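== Sequence, structure tokens ==
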Amino acid sequence: MEFEGFDARGYRTVDVRTGYGEWVSTYEDTVRDEMDIAVLDDLTVPQWSRTTRALDLGCGTGRTGAWLRRHGVPAIDGIDLTPEMLAAARARGAHDTLLEGDVTDTGLPDDTYDLLIASLIDEHLPDLTPLYREAFRVAAPNAHFALVGLHPHFIMASGMPTHFTNAAGESIAISTTVHLISDHLTAALSTGWRLAELREAVVDDRWITLKPKWSKYRHHPVSAAYVFHKEK
């Protein structure tokens, strides 16, 4: 669904490459681990340390890659659309290789990775099917694909797009699309994936300590994590 019908902020909106290129210097200070890393910590599938090679789709500054390293993943490649984000990931050093490119058309070889992961990128894709199709293509047999993102309910209830404050102090939105949980399942199942795990995280005491203004959203779902399995 188009986000405009839910928008309660009215911020000026820019495209993904422009937005993240500007946000990179403060990104690590504003994106909380509770949004994605904490949700990944709660997953029971896959067994991270048994991974041979992972692909970090939309790797950003390397936060997710660093988390994978801490969980015993021995080899990690990353791809991202934004050169400035890739420079930050390169400085972090969690990935073996980094590629500037589109997560829906990576150009990487078929059947290569036994783990794929994507964090906080799905709301920037107008259509989920190309992402799931490309992930399935580069996934090896028996691979898993873990995706974590903002919960569609939270985007709709808060009317808040992905946004940042630029150097001039202006709040800037990055193009956002609302994808229902059923949109994820439909796209994934139609491209060959099978659902292995689904978790939803809610606004709790940890969140309200970080963001007291979110107390009105207590118990509302804020993040969703999906794990899919390639059976052949």
About this structure: The beta strands are 12-14, 54-57, 76-80, 97-100, 113-119, 139-150, 163-165, 171-174, 194-202, 221-229. The mean pLDDT is 97. The helical segments are 16-30, 37-42, 63-70, 83-92, 129-138, 152-158, 181-190, 205-210. The two ends are 32 Å apart (CA to CA).
